[in-house]
Amino acid sequence: MNFSEIKKLDESYVLQTYGRNQIAIDRGRGATLWDTEGKEYIDFTSGIGVCSLGYANEAWAKAIYDQAMKVGHISNLFYTEPYARLASKLVPAAGMAAAFFGNSGAEANEGMIKLARKYSFEKYGKGRATIITLKNSFHGRTITTLKATGQDHFHEYFFPFTEGFRYAEANNMDSLMAEADGDVCAVMMELIQGEGGVNPLQREYVQSVAKLCREKDWLLLIDEVQTGIGRTGTLFAFQQFDIEPDVLTFAKGIAGGLPFGGFLVNEKCRNVLRAGDHGSTFGGNPMAAAAGNVVMDAMTPAFLEEVQKKGEYLRRGIAALNSPYVSGVRGMGLMIGAGIQGMAHKELKDKLMAEGLLCLTAGSDTLRLLPPLVITEAEIDKGLEIMARVMK
């Protein structure tokens, strides 16, 4: 089918909830994509940080096929090998105690919120269920995770929202302390605010929040849905902040393109959720877990070091453009934000796409770059050449 035919079907039969770009992707390899008309694109999006091993990865595809030919799905009333093997890799690599597997980042954050409130209820009783999150954060699109998100424009239309959230300014301990009443059970934060503009938190601030949580027996909840699974150059971003979360969530890159997510807990929280407290029909799906094992096997120290080097190479390349449209470059690993001035960031994104470079936007003025972790230097150079041509 060509682009016009696909678009017609979409407009006829699909809810129009996405502002889709006016191309239809047909295939890919590595960090390069082709649309249905045969045009080539360098991909700096990886499905919003999902396609960690890029496109047409043979080991990933073979693992999914092999598992599909054994058993594609079976309920969590039975054991299967793929999720158990995945947990045995993921948990010790993160220095945590146990895992729960689900389908998505929002679902993972919902589970983390449930765990925090149950931990507090069992230890302190009712009246201690508020979770402090940060302004400009983003935690998902369910009713509860929308309310956990610290951006007012997400708190519209879908009333009544779940109660029990308050918001503090990022990197401001005074703001956090102002919300620290006796009803608090946890602090929940992204270490890099992705949707909010690719804004890394200050290391000292994060450590101060962790110390406060220990003192007050609040759970420290870290949302690594976007920052996790190698995206920042370590398996999880928290490993670069010298903190120990009580619970952390992951999704996006874990299965390299299949729907998968979950959360990890430390020893203190290991037995909070018991049989019947939480579940997910598709959580730990054998095919998705098989894909996750391939992704985790790729996360070697050498691979993660390369992610850091490629991220630095891309950040330096953008800065070297000396473009009047770029106000600054920030980020960690291959999670990069470029501040845009003198042009709307969405307009720039469209101009880059027209020239063969796919990018994302974030916040009000940021070009967000989340290339596949396997992107080559040659593909980065092609992307930088397009940026130079468009932003000269």
Would you mind describing this structure in some detail?
The structure is a single chain. With 392 residues, the chain is α/β, with parallel strands linked by helices. It has helices at 3-13, 46-49, 58-68, 81-94, 105-124, 143-148, 173-178, 203-216, 286-298, 301-320, 345-354, 377-390; strands spanning 25-29, 32-35, 40-43, 98-102, 130-134, 165-168, 184-189, 192-193, 199-200, 219-223, 247-250, 261-265, 326-332, 335-340, 357-358, 360-362, 366-369. A seven-stranded mixed sheet has the order 4-12-11-10-7-5-6, with helices on both faces. A four-stranded mixed sheet has the order 1-2-3-15. Helix 3 (58-68) packs antiparallel against helix 9 and helix 4 (81-94) packs parallel to helix 9 (286-298). The longest helix has 20 residues, at 105-124. It is globular. The model has no long low-confidence stretch (mean pLDDT 98).
What's the structural blueprint in terms of helices and strands?
Elements: H1 3-13, E1 25-29, E2 32-35, E3 40-43, H2 46-49, H3 58-68, H4 81-94, E4 98-102, H5 105-124, E5 130-134, H6 143-148, E6 165-168, H7 173-178, E7 184-189, E8 192-193, E9 199-200, H8 203-216, E10 219-223, E11 247-250, E12 261-265, H9 286-298, H10 301-320, E13 326-332, E14 335-340, H11 345-354, E15 357-358, E16 360-362, E17 366-369, H12 377-390
Parallel strand pairs: 3-15, 5-6, 5-7, 7-10, 10-11
Antiparallel strand pairs: 1-2, 2-3, 4-12, 8-9, 11-12, 13-14, 14-17, 16-17
